[in-house]
Amino acid sequence: MSLSGMTAAFKASSSFVTQQQWWHPTRDQCQYGFTSLSERRFRKRPVLLRVKAISGKLDLDFSDPSWKQKYQEDWDRRFSLPHITDIYDLEPRTTTFSLKKDRTPLGDGDVSSTDMRNGYVNKDDRALLKVIKYVSPNSAGAECIDPDCSWVEHWVHRAGPRKEIYYEPEEVKAAIVTCGGLSPGLNDVIRQIVFTLETYGVKNIVGIPFGYRGFFEKGLKEMPLSRDLVENINLSGGSFLGVSRGGAKTSEIVDSIQARRIDMLFVIGGNGSHAGANAIHEECRKRKLKVSVVAVPKTIDNDILFMDKTFGFDTAVEEAQRAINSAYIEARSAYHGIGLVKLMGRSSGFIAMHASLSSGQIDVCLIPEDLLQKSNATDASGNVILSDFGVHMQQKIKKHFKDIGVPADLKYIDPTYMVRACRANASDAILCTVLGQNAVHEAFAGFSGITSGVCNTHYVYLPIPEVITAPKHVNPNSRMWHRCLTSTGQPDFH
Prior knowledge:
- This protein is an alpha/beta fold.
- Helix content is 29%, strand content 17%.
- The protein has twelve helices and 19 strands.
- It has helices at 39-44, 67-78, 186-200, 227-230, 250-260, 271-286, 313-333, 350-359, 389-403, 426-444, 464-467, 479-488, and strands at residues 6-11, 52-55, 58-61, 93-94, 126-128, 155-158, 164-165, 173-178, 204-208, 223-224, 264-269, 292-297, 337-343, 364-366, 374-378, 384-386, 409-413, 450-455, 458-463.
- The strands form five sheets. A nine-stranded mixed beta sheet has the order 5-6-19-18-12-11-8-9-10, sandwiched between helices.
- A hairpin with a 2-residue loop joins strand 2 and strand 3 (58-61).
- Helix 3 runs parallel beside helix 10 (426-444), helix 5 packs across helix 6 and helix 7 (313-333) crosses helix 8 (350-359).
- The relative contact order is 0.19.
- Mean pLDDT is 83; it is low at 1-55.
- It comes from Panicum virgatum.
- InterPro entries: ATP_PFK, PFKA, Phosphofructokinase_dom, PKF_sf.
- Residues 174-441 form the Phosphofructokinase domain.
- It catalyses: beta-D-fructose 6-phosphate + ATP = beta-D-fructose 1,6-bisphosphate + ADP + H(+).
């Protein structure tokens, strides 16, 4: 590797992780007598078969011929969707969602007639979450349940409009809140939620300003929303409603929801915001409130379980290319030039990996969260505040070349806020459009405590507790990471 023109993409040091997170089995993947400290260790040690393993909270005995049936029954239980009829005895009504050119006025005519251009998703429709049958646990990226890597189907609920709904649109008050940090596409989601609510016939739509803080902070008033108001907000980045981290106690937020007579709450945010949404959902159920709490997965880190990707990720990777290209040009133009780019990602590594793959100008891609001491401090969202690994690398590289007497011109670029404050690209804009629409469909269908996402290329609904059990990380045994190593030509430092 020549020193001149060397570039490197580094992910932001946003969490201290143990080596175990490098070899990260899924919650469905049992461990057959070996310790999952690293894939290197996995390769060296033989697999000692056990007949008992734990999948989720279910003890499985593989000597039992019915273990697969028990596993699938447990899966169906875990991924069933909470519904307002769990606490209310309600009769559904025919949907008001119609895409006919000459829309039937609310309450008039039969909108379920066969001449409608749009179809409905049946409540029993399912999408298959995993489609690869691995022959062996040694297969790259293998996610096995039993020692033989038996094929087990993982079905989840398909997203989309239902033929029957559980709310009267003209009586609904719907609220939208954006939480956590910025991500490209927030305005696109807000816009589509408003558009779809109005298509159903909802007239009372409000935005809660500055995250959960807007429910309790004095001086922050809810903002009336309409199609005319949000028509062009997708043309700029940021959040039309504003964002913030942290919030009041769940009970205080639900007090505010109850006082405002909110029937539907749409929470746009990442793992922490999803946890907050689920807590609000549980408190509403405890109080027997007819409120649908629906989340939309937002994080440029792409670290939410089960989902192919979250909105903002594609745009962040695309924006990262600008920083990488600048670092590459600077390094190529300097005598003994080195380009160092730090990318954010909070321990997941996906932005760094995908940016390295897509740029074609990277010599080394590192995901180094476990190399610096963890701080005891946390931000308002409860995330650990971490040391800056980019600055650490910058100092170490300079010292190394100074110690060996070689002049080196290091160009360090940190585009953290540039990659998240911009407008969504075309790919993310489409994803945001569908996620926003599906969020409204799931609320009108009577679901609560769930989120919508794209899994195995299909749009699905998932219960929030299942997607927040742990963040998703780059798996160094995955085919994608192997592709990254092949692309950069770097050795396997792990």
